[in-house]
Amino acid sequence: MHQSILRAWQRAGHWLVGRYVILPDHIHLFCSPGTHPPEPVQNWVRYWKSHVAKTTGAGADSLWEKNFWDTQLRRGDSYAAKWEYVRSNPVRHKLVSRVDDWPYQGEMNLRGWHH
Lowest CB count within 10 Å: 4, 28, 59, 104, which one? Predict the structure, then answer.
């Protein structure tokens, strides 16, 4: 599933995924527009969810919730705080004891605020 999601994000270049954490029941990711003007984020999410469902043989309705939650970050310190929260999710959910032990996380495209 991890690789299927990464391939879908690579194919769906209208938005570029930076850091992400994939958990058993939800995904956190940071993304930014890959086109100007930006494609609506709803279209991008719909595309990659559909692509993952088709390539894995899972039904989209059983695999994904219909909605998603997003927010726009405007400052680097906000990004840093949100990333610390996101990367700690596997520990909070008692999936691993150390943040770095969770294998389903990474960074696809370098985004500006944390480098």
Answer: 59
